[in-house]
Amino acid sequence: MSGSEFIRELPQVPTTVKLSTELKTGSWRSYRPVIDHNRCVKCLICWVYCPELSIRWDGSSVSIDYDFCKGCGICAHECPVKAVTMVPEGGGYEGGR
Amino acid sequence: MRVVGEVRALNGDEAVAYAVRQCNVDVISAYPITPQTIIVERLSEYVANGEIHTEYVNVESEHSALSTCIGAAAAGARAFTATSSQGLALMWELLYVASGLRLPIVMAVVNRALSAPINIHCDHSDSIGTRDSGWIQFYVENSQEAYDTVIQAFKIAEHPDVQLPVMINLDGFYLSHTLENVRVLPDDVVSGFVGFRKPVKVWVPYLGREVPAVLDGYTPISLGIIALSDYYYEFKMMVIKAMEKAREVIKEVNKEFSELSGRAYGDGFLTHYGVDDAEAVLIVMGSAAGTVRYVARELRRKGLRVGVIRLRTFRPFPYEELTKLLKDVKAVGVMDRATSPGAYGAPLFNEVRTALYDCECRPVIVNYVYGIGGRDLSPHTVKELYSDLLEIAKGKKPSSIVRYVGVRS
Ligand code: SF4
Ligand code: SF4
After folding, report:
1. Does residue A69's CB lie within 6 angstroms of at least one atom of ligand 1?
2. What confidence category does residue A4 fall into, taking pLDDT thresholds of 50, 70 and 90?
3. Of B86, B99, B159, B108, nearest in space to B135 by CA
4. B308 within 8 A of B284, measured Cβ to Cβ
5. Which end of chain B has fewer CB atoms < 10 Å from its terminal CB, N or C?
6. What residues of B are in contact with residue A28 (Cβ under 8 Å)?
7. Cβ atoms of B52 and B1 closer than 8 Å
8. What is the average pLDDT across A14-40?
């Protein structure tokens, strides 16, 4: 919304000025979900549960869109075969990972 | 075109429901609470009988009732709800959401005292408490006015320059449960008067075009996401400006409606009696105005120069109209049916006194708090208030500026 100098330039109703796809929320993340594709059984439960629509399904495997994943860990919690691990961002201070 | 309409025996709640039935409302969501219950009962009957094609959403609380109306209105619907007292208190955070999102929701509030202790009877503390929430507030005097004001409310709320929610306040039991003759307009006339909701448009930069500001499922927009220290103030300012614009619109709609029905409520903001040559004036809101006017008439017959102003709108507050009317009056008594513990007088008093501070011949203004928790206001008491005021008008110093009338000492 930057750049508006006058109230009259603002919308009467507080609507969005950007699509949510332009607002990359991935930087909020302190833990990154990592999928172990050897374990993944492609049940898509993570896809159902992810509140950020950050699990992608390309027809043959799942992947994570790190531009938007906030690192909430719900996918790791819900995965029935524990194929998702939450790894600390930024070099890792937990066990040096 | 002047339409006479037929007379029906309706209480205040029924009058509200009858008007809502005629106003092409898309979504109703409300939770029953005494003394508002009859409104939702009648409305759900209308829906169950197929008399209106309105989506009636049953909810588990008032918080959800207003949330539902907010969702519906954000999707472009005309939405209505009704509540009282604790119910309004439970809606609190959503009140600001409705005005901040500029959603023209209409709500009837049947005024009732707030707990504790539990009380189901009338005072204005519930709605007066919400005065800063950005809702337009009407206080009606009788069932006829309740009916007429609901119809006007949709037009005012949905005016492109206003786009604010409207609250119609009617006194619990005095109006809600008392049968009156109400002249109702034919369905098609009301429908024609209010029409259908036309959402305003907004410019969306990433689409490069203007679109209706509604969540229609096709146009990718969101409402009210976030505006921090950079833009929140401006959006609040727009609500303030819209409230100022509402003054003109309330006046217009009052006039248009009177051309249709023959009924006008002063200029839309207030009605008055005997003020022109009055020395002492009482200012009052709601059903008590009838009692005050009755006493004023009696006293004037005896040659006493007394008058009464009945405020119809509290938001926007008609300070200019009041200042004009009261410029030659010596003593003004402001009757508040709400309290503000710790304040110097109750809210209406504060508002009136502030308005008259810049008035050249500044009258003495005193506060009479009355009717709390449904405490009766008798003509005898009103007579006492007038004689108190007349003495003040003659130069007597008021015994106290703020007086609590009719309470045990
Ligand atoms: S961590 Fe949360 S946001 Fe990220 S992919 Fe998993 S469920 Fe989605
Ligand atoms: S929930 Fe686990 S197993 Fe299922 S698709 Fe997601 S990562 Fe694979």
Report:
1. yes
2. low
3. B99
4. yes
5. C
6. none
7. no
8. 91
Residue A30 tokens, joined: 């302190």
Q: What is the pLDDT of residue A1?
A: 46
Percent of chain B whose pLDDT exceeds 90: 96
B360 confidence band (pLDDT: 50, 70, 90): confident
ipTM of predicted assembly, 2 dp: 0.78
CATH fold of B270-404, please? Rossmann fold (3.40.50)
Per-residue pLDDT tens digits for B300-309: 999 999 999 9
DSSP-derived letter for residue A95 is T
Return the CATH class of domain A29-90: alpha beta
Chain A residues with beta carbon closer than 8 angstroms to that of B215: none
C-alpha B352: how far from chain center = 17
Chain B positions touching chain A (beta carbons under 8 Å): 100-102, 163, 200, 202-206, 213, 220-225, 227, 230-231, 234-235, 237-238, 241
Two tokens at B144? 């006829």
User: Which residues of B are less than 8 Å from A1 in CB distance?
Assistant: 227, 230-231
How far does the CA of residue A8 sit from the closest CA of chain B (Å)? Answer: 9
Q: Minimal CA–CA distance to B2: which of B257, B195, B191?
A: B257
Q: What is the CATH number of domain B6-198+244-261?
A: 3.40.50.970
